[in-house]
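Cross-posted from the bioinformatics board.
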Amino acid sequence: QQQMTVSGTVTDSNGMPLPGVNVLVKGTTQGVQTDFDGNYSIEVDQGEVLVFSYLGMKTTEYPVTNVDTIDVVLEQDAAQLEEVVVTALGISREKRSLGYATEEVAGAEVNTAKEGNFINSLSGKVSGLDIKKSSTLGGSSNIIIRGYTSLTGNNQPLFVVDGVPISNANTNTANQQTGRGGYDYGNAAMDINPDDVASVNVLKGAAASALYGSRAANGVIIITTKSGQKNENIGVTISSGVTFSKMDDDTFVEYQKEYGAGYGEFYETGYFDSWDVDGDGTDDLVVPFTEDASFGGRFDPNLLVFQWDALYPESPNYLQATPWVAAENGPESIFRTGVTFNNSVALDGGTDKSTYRLGYTLYDQEGILPNSRIRRNTVDIKATHDFTEKLTAGVTATFTNTNGKGRYGTGYSGTNIFQSMRQWNQANVDFEAQRRAYFNTGRNITWNYADAENGDFSPIYTDNPYWQLYENYQTDERNRLYGNFNINYELTDWLSATGRVSMDYYGDFREERRNVGSNGVSHYQRYDGTYKEINYDFLLNFDYDLNEDINLAGILGATARRLDNAQMRAGTTGGLVIPGLFALSNSQNLLTPPNEAVTELHTNGYFASASFGYRDFLYLDATGRVDEVSSLPEEDNTYFYPSISTSVVFSQLLDTDWLSFGKFRANYAEVGNYAPPLSVQDVYASPTNFTTPLYSVSSTANNPNLKNETTKSWEVGLEMEFFQRRLGFDVAAYQSNSVDQLMPVTITAATGYTSRWVNAGEIENKGIELSLHGSPIRTEDFEWRVNANWYKNESEVISLYGDNKNLQMASLQGGVTINATVGQPYGTIWGTNYTFLNGERVINPTNGRFVVDGTPQVIGDINPDWKAGISNSLSYKDLSFSFLIDIQKGGDIFSLDTWYGYATGVPANTAGLNELGNPLRDPVADGGGLLLEGVNPDGSPNTTRTQMSNYANAIGYGYAPNAYHTYDASFVKLREMTLSYSLPESITDRISMADITLSAVGRNLWIIDKNIPYSDPEAGLSSGNIQGYQSGAIPTAREYGFNVRLQF
Amino acid sequence: CSDDLSSVNVDTKSPTEVPADVLFSNATKNLFDQMVSTNVNRGIFKMVAQYWTETTYTDEANYDLIGRDINGAQWIILYRDVLKDLKEAEMILNENPDPTLSEANIQNRLAMIEVLQVFTWHVLVDTFGDIPYTEALDLENSTPVYDDDAAIYADLVVRLNGAIDQLEAGAGGFGGGADYIYDGDAAKWSKFANSLKLRLALRYANVDDTKAATMATEAIAAGVFESQDDNATIQYQASAPNTNPIWTDLVQSGRKDFVAANTIVDVMNELDDPRRDDYFAQNLGEGVYKGGTYGANGNTQGNSTIFGEIFTDPTLEGVILDYAEVEFLIAEAAARGYITEDAETHYNEAVTASIIYWGGTEAEADAYLAQPEVAWDESIWLERIGIQKWIALYNRGFEAWSTWRKLDVPELPNAAQSGLPVPLRFTYPTTEATLNGDNLAAAASAMGGDTQQTRVFWDLD
């Protein structure tokens, strides 16, 4: 056979040249791509066949004869456009036929730059998705799709992995979720191993999720894991990565370095206590140890004072006065570089009848605080087998084992070392010296002695942070198994039956410790929880062509869900006897009974759907579902809800050059929702026994007349693709109204209760979502792709319970509350405000302070105005680079950290110079003090400077309104950056490997812009409805690392 | 399948029916805890009465009721955790009593519940003024109107009289240790009810002297406390969480939040009071008592006198009404001419009872009373009773504050940092403004404002 060179030009049906078309010699790996002008040239033997392929075009084959020029016209391929997505109940559908919005994220986008909590890696990638990452190690991520629809219930979406609905429960304590302390154990969906994810599909609206029933009222995140392929050789993938985490300075408090311990000039010698420390008979200058503030004496290296490290015998400064200077090693010295290893191996393959994939991943993360670590082992298996032509079956199973140790304490508690670091500290305390003090003595040597003068060296408020981290650490373990067994039988060529049993089971064991010698009563507490959910699904699927033009497809199905939940918390009473022994039996006093909770929930669902398709152009879908649930009153526990949607692929009707695809979609849907278990019948609460047993009327009244709540929504959308899909957009507009909300409303205690379950209230959400994608530049070797998304959701509380105008969701420290208020967006922050005169803040001219309006009122809104994500990816041959900018505009957050911190004089902006160039902290009479912007009550500009020389200043919690500490939570973040290089095939082929990819990745690298000082605007409390509040905020870790992926 | 469904929605860990006893016990415990506690999040009456002041964080001593929702704690605990359980216990006794109980026993139990309800209601009125009463404790009415404080008091007197009539000595009451105050002794409850009536009678002094005189006369005639053995107390236990709440805050917490205020220390120093070594520790040296300036910064447990050792005893009994108070009330009623008893005798007995209760002796009491600044003086009886009752009520901040509001003795200075005068009532909890705002606004308007300086009806200017 004769070798010859064939060349030519590839164009589309309009004669436009197509660059980047793959030209392959059929049956070989030999091939080229067309250049920018659509030209190609290839060496080929006569008689061979050239295959021209291009995304969106029909693949076309040309046999090589003796002609050396082959010009090719590629036609648009409707079939190629038929992107298939997984929809509710695991049903694959052509995306073009869907009358609702779905958005897909490829696996590579979540498993290249990995997050410990994989949910975070969706941030900025899907419009309509509001994700708030927690900064704590292994913490929860709050995820809201298209706004909060439930006033007090769960607003998190349903997670479904390969058809298995898996729990995303947050089992943090109520105290943790309201900023009063405790650990953030994350949300259960974080067990999903990013390495196993093939794709993520987000079902946003009720129409998309209606078939899942009640629990999908907040949208669904469908995860498809990787699987093997039929007729493939064994494939081995090894992925290995290391990531380093470093604290982002922009998210931590910067200390002022001019003044030390004290609340003001209140002590025996003014700024210092005075007693005889060294026993020489004369009184010494002593730091006021009990005062956890930095409004004390100005630093002066010539002034020698007795500091905390002069009072423990092992100290190098024992009984010695030392210079009064700012700490050389501030609180930031406590952070370390966290190292995370992620190693995985997967084998996949298949025969002509079977596929399989086996995977193992070890994820091992060290936090940025000492003694913190989370390890997660994941083993998973996925297999299918065709027993006959008609009978196929599959099984998936994932086992995860997660071990945590030293998760960071959260909220307003000594367990959270950031509480004191941000709010209550002395700028003279050297944290390196604190570290030495703990490690050299093994004791809780604090800077905050209770009563040193009288020999009481225990901490009055704050433990040595190293003692806290090494003695009072928590540990936890979760073992989880989820998976399904499914079997499918083709009854006829248009009818099949599917049976599926899926299960999610996990057990949690958590231990929390406070050793003897700590501030507060020593304590040991354990939590044991088990969660089990089993779903039995039976579906009949039909897909029938009525004639050439009309297709009818649909489902009839039934599902039964059985959920069991058991939790127990038990703790010691009155302290521990033997130090370091953390066991219930080591309790000082008789144990108080543990807190037990056992709940069951059974639901039965019956559903049907029908889809009509006309000439691959017009689609019409209708669904209906009936749910019967155990948690509603027996006589009223069944409810029905429908959905209808349509899709019109109008590009089928148009014959234009520029339009590659165009679709209009619209839908209306209702989804019912049920009450949580045990909210129908009243029971008595059991307080701890006194000398005899005690019972009490519950503080929450249940309600035997509850019924289901309903969300009604409509949505319209338009998808268009242009210029051979070089440019495209998807825009959606929606509105949802959730009515008859099931909720425990807060009622006045004058009723004898403080809350009551009712059906009442309505929330409306409406919004616009826009995503854009384009390839501004595409040549043979180089491509620049841009994906951008933007969305805006507006919520409004339409009504509440009875005449009530406000539903308080949480009352938080600092006097602020999070509320749902009629006429306001869901989630307003209420607190004290400025007094305004013509829009200006009114200042009291006698003391220069704000005139505070003490009536609680709306001072903030937790919801962002809009969010956006822009990702750019640039690829040149085998090298690719991409980065993601994540933007939030608006949303408010109250900071308890500055609320207290400004009163204790810890942060940098409580010192320094005022506008006259004088020290802020100097007396006002001497030109010091702070000039607050505002007007006097008569409208003239404020000219009175206010004192900043002690804790009772105008900007701390004593005299500032809550509004002063409520910040705009806007941000612009460089969220993700990856640089990858795949070795060319010429090299991999030679060493018999399929692929070698090296990548450098970074996450949370840079907060480009934000408004809240000293913290990350994303840092909050926990996942759930209580947002917009920071207390002891945990700094954000920047992560950067390297991955190697080898495929054989 | 439906049957199966409803059967799983059952709380297998909590009861749907309980006997009245456990609710009565719980209400009693919650009432005492709230009256006794000195926790800065719920009961700051030791500060309000200026017995103690705070060290590092001085907000509560400066009468910030809002920052820690102290007014909210008082409101919620008394309504929800005391009154509701009492009402539920009453309902169970009326509708579904233990069939083994005699009718007289049930009536006694109901009367005991009634006495505690009256006690709790009067504390609520004294704290806030107008409050929801006639429409309160009704789940179906989540916006109850606020009733006039004087009208509530009038009804409380009627209810208390009813309970007094209903109590039948010897017929028993709550048994099995469920009655933490008197262990089911109806005769003791009768004395408690009459002593409470005497207290309420004297709240009416100056407002309605006739009513005050009638009530005082009736109460004394029917029998009030005759010794400290009659006191309304609860015996706290040695181990957490059943200790005296004061121990929890002073000892278990490891905190050093409080020192004695100069207000009381100075007065007791002036009078050379024999109770000083019980009320206070001698942490500054033997015989040295120096209170921290009330509400000021810079007070520490190193530079100020602290509380006596007895307050660190977890088993210290909690008291809501005692013999010394009753004797002071009789003395006052006599001094006001409501009754014909000898005011001086009862004044002396009150002071003596207090001194002995706190560990002093008859001799100390006699010597103390012999001092011209202490000895009874009819012409300045108000000041004598005012000062001595204030000293005697040292561990009962709420009653001390209420008595002070009525007698206006001693003079209590403004808090040093905030400059605020002692509150004359608590402002309504901030949450009430959002939960029942219209009714709150109407009450505030009726009372002349929702401020700390608005007066309850019996506190005349």
